[in-house]
Amino acid sequence: MILRFPPNFARQLSVKSRRNCSNIGVAQVVAASAMSGQSSGGSSSIVDGVAAALSVGISVNGTAVKIDKAAEKPKPKSTSTLAVHGGERENGTKVADSLTTPIVQTATYTFRNTADLIAFQDGTYKSFEYGRYGNPTTQATERKISALEGAEETLVSASGMCAATTMLLALVPAGGHIVTTTDCYRRTRQFVQTVLPKMGITTTVIDPADMASLKGALDDNPVSLFFSESPTNPYLRCIDIELVSTLCRRKGAIVCIDGTFATPVNQKALALGADLVLNSATKYIAGHNDVLAGSISGSKPLVDTVRKLHNVLGGVVDAHAAYLIGRGLKTLDLRVRQQNSNALRLARALESHPKIARVHYPGLESHPEFHIASKQMRGFGGVVSFEIDGDLALTSKFIDGLRIPYIAPSLGGCESLVEQPTIISYWDQSPAERAKMGIKDNLVRFSCGIEDYEDIYADVMQSLASL
Ligand SMILES: *Cc1c(COP(=O)(O)O)cnc(C)c1O
């Protein structure tokens, strides 16, 4: 393999690297440092390094360096290894040999001279120009998410909603038609119902399992895009991503899955056939209830189309937030495995409890899409929704009797959180409106944290006992 490094590539390396090597040695240093200190399972090995170097910019004016083909190791596939190492060694931004990716707290980027600027404009010298168009810390986090999702490209945005709205505005033409599903995050529904119609964009809303309606919508309309959560909020319905993707591809419709509730630990939506996967990184991805962000991953052309509009709309994530996401992601696999286990055990315990009317969890055989979830998910996520056998007041009493979870919106962090959707998200709606949206007054959404299961179980049982 021949690598050509742009004339300014050496400038991007640490002072120490530059002191110790000639220009041609630079590539060897990059290659060696990408390989050193790693076990056989080590991620971001030479292959990633090479891929990154290639994406850093190829110049016909640059120095050609031969890399031994035998040195290319296969990419590791395991999610936990990718969570730790993905995106970390690829972009040459590490300073002073730090292990961690630095927080590049800058609004703008400088050019040494006009020749550099022209090289940048011509694409032979990669830099970032201006904070709205990119940031090295954010890019490292984007690459880590790409590694986890198995995506070519990822855009990290200031919130999940910013990622979703920018994606819809970028990919659906004026006058276009989209298909969404009944159960979904309230603000997504609001955007689809109130903003998209201003551009003449119409929507068919289907039940997540209703493939006949999807076929009908695809036959009757020029559908540009299918957008659904899987699992959905708050009833954890699952769509058959493989089947939906097959049906949509035939008609040229883009499939975007909001995988927030699943995370790439439990579900690889792109491998199942979706074109894009969106995450509210606020939830499991960042994982600590301390940062807001969103991500959208998929093929480079699609994500770049979204990024171009994002560059205009400007919903940029702050570098410090991007750092926190990258840091949080290192424990994603550990956290989600514990949350999967807590939620599945809690769901099973609740299902047989006399004071519970119904449990909604895709890992239970009673769930309408259990067979789909079992097929396409490795774990079923940390959220369990359930109905107290009682009214709004009794349900509030149960929530107020809990000692471990905080009463709060959101999900996916280390701390267990609990909410009554009627009160926290739909209180402004009349009971009739809530009923129309399927939001029941006795519904509880419990987002398991990473606490010990026995403690969560004991807490839930003591509160149920007091009803
Ligand atoms: C929270 C959430 C969103 C919105 O994400 P923000 O980061 O809060 O903007 C979108 N979809 C789902 C499924 C969510 O849970």
From TrEMBL:
Keywords: Pyridoxal phosphate. Belongs to the trans-sulfuration enzymes family. GO terms for biological process: methionine biosynthetic process; transsulfuration. Residues 70-96 are annotated as: Disordered. Gene3D superfamilies: Aspartate Aminotransferase, domain 1, Type I PLP-dependent aspartate aminotransferase-like (Major domain). Coiled coil: none annotated. Pathway: Amino-acid biosynthesis; L-methionine biosynthesis via de novo pathway; L-cystathionine from O-succinyl-L-homoserine: step 1/1. Its EC number is 2.5.1.160. The modification N6-(pyridoxal phosphate)lysine is found at residue 283. Pfam families: Cys_Met_Meta_PP. InterPro entries: CGS1/2 (IPR044639), Cys/Met-Metab_PyrdxlP-dep_enz (IPR000277), Cys_met_metab_PP (IPR054542), PyrdxlP-dep_Trfase (IPR015424), PyrdxlP-dep_Trfase_major (IPR015421), PyrdxlP-dep_Trfase_small (IPR015422). This is plant cystathionine gamma-synthase. It comes from the Eukaryota. It catalyses: O-succinyl-L-homoserine + L-cysteine = L,L-cystathionine + succinate + H(+); O-phospho-L-homoserine + L-cysteine = L,L-cystathionine + phosphate. GO terms for molecular function: cystathionine gamma-synthase activity; pyridoxal phosphate binding. Its cofactor is pyridoxal 5'-phosphate. The keyword GTP-binding does not apply.
